[in-house]
Amino acid sequence: MQRKKVMVFCDYYLPGFKSGGGMWTVVNLVDHFRESYDFYIVTRNHDGKADKKPYDSVKTGEWNSVGSGKVFYLKAGQLTVRAFRDLLREVTPDIVFLNSVFSMPSITFLRARKSSRLSEIPVIVSPCGELAGATLKFKAVKKGLFLKYAKLSGLYRDVIWRASFESDAIEIRAAMGKGIEVYCAPDLPPKTILPGFNLSDKPEKRRGAVRLVFVSRLVRKKNLHYLLERLSSCTSGEIVLDVVGPIEDKEYWKECEAAAQKLPANIRLNVLGPMPYPETLARMQLAHFFVLPTLTENFGYVFIEALACGCPLLISNRTVWGEVTQKGSGWAVPLEDPIAWDAAIRDCVKMEQERFSQMAKSAREHALACLADPEIERATARLLDRAARN
């Protein structure tokens, strides 16, 4: 029996690593379902908004074998309705998967679909948190105008929406209308993360000294400035903060640099820039705690990666990882309570080895339980089956 073909349109893909978690939604989809479907990915030929240099390890304007999928890399001038129509006719997919609401590849495909005889192809749209109320506040006017146009023109008519969880589904319906079809399918984690990891790999935790790591794109939503403000009140203990990620918002980064200038002498800030996936994991292994006071987050692949590295989380309560507090694998603290944030940071500094070892163990176990949950893959299998039956 011939396998069905899934065609994915997304902003960025491998060999990139600078664009954040959205890319890993597609990478993990291909990895989990490569035995059941053939995947064709159409994407840009560079690595994220902060790096427009074309890849030198792949060929632009033709199909490349990358992992278990075929990938077609396009330069900016090639993201056209005509080019997308040609690729669709070449592949003849059974399902189209759009990994964004607002990205140019997604919009270009939908325009091609609307203006040609492609409407019979089942389409799954995965907003990846873009329709959350808090996220829509960023560039609110531009996004609001686009969504109004999309509804009036029927751009998203008859698509299947993928929500990561039930509250995500509620926000998708609030943004797009109650009559739409929404399936809940949690974000697929990698099959494994550091299978050879040992808790003895973690650094010693001395009372009065701590190493923190922040891994994310440097944009306002990730809220590094808030963390730097909180650290500015920590005048005792030895604190090291490693910041890993590309600078996407230069104006916001200037604000962060100004806040960094006010850090007391006992705090060392290491701005390391973006790192490939294995090096990022290695950096998290070297840290005691992972810190991210994000303003809003959909799933956050970096959270499960940090937990798998034995890093308890110190995060805002605006994520789906609030259970870290109950599981003893971290803290989920309201951003509206800076005193509680200051107390949590002091707790990290003062913590001794015995308690840290238990928290690191709980973090690793938390990650392994998520990776082993069979229902996560089953939910996506049901979503693909639903689209394939269209």
Topology readout:
Blueprint lengths: L3 E6 L12 H12 L3 E8 L18 E4 L2 E6 L6 H11 L3 E4 L5 H11 L8 E3 L7 H4 L3 H14 L6 E4 L2 H11 L4 E4 L24 E7 L8 H8 L6 E7 L5 H11 L6 E7 L3 H10 L2 E4 L8 H8 L4 E4 L7 H4 L2 E4 L4 H13 L2 H20 L1 H15 L2
Parallel strand pairs: 1-2, 1-5, 2-4, 5-6, 6-7, 7-8, 9-10, 9-12, 10-11, 12-13, 13-14
Antiparallel strand pairs: 3-4
Helix pairs in contact: 2-3, 7-8, 10-13
Q: Name the structural class.
A: alpha/beta
Radius of gyration: 21 Å
Major sheet? 8 strands, mixed
Strand order of the largest sheet: 3-4-2-1-5-6-7-8
What is the multimeric organization of the chains shown? single chain
Summed over residues and divided by their number, the pLDDT gives a mean of: 94
* Rough outline: globular
List segments where confidence is low: pLDDT < 50 over at least 5 consecutive residues. Answer: none
